């Protein structure tokens, strides 16, 4: 049992594909068979109705002449009247038995009067009960009956009804022969059948296309599932690797600091320079590890947020002081313009600091002269806006479109020596969105960049 289960799991995709192919074949076949069955059933029902109508016409005619069966002229007048009223009656004749044949006593075609006929259907009809008879389709008549249809084209179908008439003594005295055209009904049936076939063909084509698309989507779903599995494995690997890198990085930073402070003994000027390079590289690697961990937490929905009211101006001032030395080293100004009586914002303080460090730090990194201005204010919609404006190198519209993509960095002569992972702005955007905010960028190449993000304010 376990082997069968293992086989089914192993070949799951093959079975799913076969199932899809079977659907594509079986469903159209079922629809075709069902449609043809309905059409044939419809045709049979129409034929039955026509047979009944032919008999009913015969009985109505009998009712109109039963009291005058011995008056041939009266019967002839009735035949002429009925033929004139109902155009579907192609031929109507009244016959009387004469030895083993039947003589036409009255007919819609006057030239036939007086002719004798031994048509086998008349003999069969004569044996039927009073006011009952035989009705047959012209297509079912034997070759001996072809002369009975000489007035009609081979394509035209009609019903031939033959019915015995009895007098008041219940004695059979005559026979009614009537041909009723089914042309109008046949045309309608053909029209409906052709329309049904066209609709059926279109429906089958649509279903085949739909099922083909469904099978393709099924394949895409399987592929998507595999990609998700690979993506999950990648995220887990990054998470594990990042955590494992933290421990040796902490050790490297600790020993470098101890060597720089002389705790482990005197260090030469050349060694101090090398230790500074090691420290900077360790910090960059640490930033990469932290970014990778944040990406993993965000994508897996494991990033914890603690949203509470906070004073935005205090947080911005703290980050300004933290980055001011970096700006002054480049000869740049870094200032904060704050509006009065700002309300508190609803935010995760630690994550907001991370956002500000990223945005203001980027502004300082990509500005060669001039400086960076940070402003905060409540816009007309009652939402807090924080704007970071720089006089840096700016970017093109094409570069701006991809700015928040994962691992994307603006590449050019002016940026090739600026370190970065391409993850900072992606993380920043996700953090702002998790805090129910939005972020926008306005930039002109060679002029500068303005980054604006919003945060909800505390409702009193």
Oligomeric organization of the protein chains = single chain
Distance between the termini: 66 Å
Structural domains: how many: 3
In DSSP terms (H or I, runs of 4 or more residues), the helix count works out at 10
Strand content: 15-25%
Q: Structural class, judged by helices and strands?
A: alpha+beta
Helices and strands, in order, run as HHHEEEHEEEHHEHEEHEEHHEE
The whole-number mean of residue pLDDT values reads 79
CATH superfamily of the largest domain: PAS domain
Flag low-confidence runs: 149-153
- Please describe the biggest sheet, giving its number of strands, its sense, and whether it closes into a barrel: 6 strands, antiparallel
Shape verdict: rod-shaped
C-alpha Rg, in Å? 49 Å
**Strands of the largest sheet, in order across it?**
3-2-1-6-5-4
Helix percentage: 40-55%
Describe the structure.
53% of the residues lie in helices and 18% in strands. It has 460 residues and is α+β, with helices and mostly antiparallel strands. The chain folds into three domains: 13-181, PAS domain (Beta-Lactamase, 2-Layer Sandwich), CATH 3.30.450.20; 191-299, Helix Hairpins, CATH 1.10.287; 308-455, Heat Shock Protein 90. Residues 149-153 have low confidence and may be disordered.
What keyword list fits this structure?
alpha+beta, Beta-Lactamase, Helix Hairpins, Heat Shock Protein 90, six-stranded antiparallel sheet, 53% helix
Summarize the structure.
With 460 residues, the chain is an alpha+beta fold. 53% of the residues lie in helices and 18% in strands. Strands 3-2-1-6-5-4 form a 6-stranded antiparallel β-sheet, with helices on both faces.
